[in-house]
Known about the structure:
Blueprint: H1 10-19, H2 23-32, E1 43-48, E2 51-58, E3 61-67, H3 74-89, E4 93-98, H4 99-104, H5 106-120
Parallel strand pairs: 3-4
Antiparallel strand pairs: 1-2, 2-3
Amino acid sequence: MYFFEYNKNLKMYARELRTQMTDCEALFWEKIRRKQILGVQFYRQKPIGSYIIDFYSNSPKIALELDGEYHDQVEQRAKDVNRDLYLNSLGIKTLRFSNQEVMDNLDFVLEKVEQTILSLL
Length: 121
């Protein structure tokens, strides 16, 4: 497994986030944990660089981000673009889904994740 450098100050915060998942994150985690999608192992709240990734797989390199309403704000969108560019520079493909998408159409979201994984293998 390849390890990315990360801000060590994020480690405790990432642990805290793992224990305080939102309902949306918990629902999504139940569907992707334990290699349920094409045998791919995902990790929750993974620090990479100066960021904490909601869900991450090292093989293939894919980051799954679940975005709440605050991601609709202009300032946050700019931060998300910078995060995605950084992850892309490390060879990590980022998929973003709104919390609403996950809650309303989980099967579609999971299908999109599976299609993306297949395209990266």
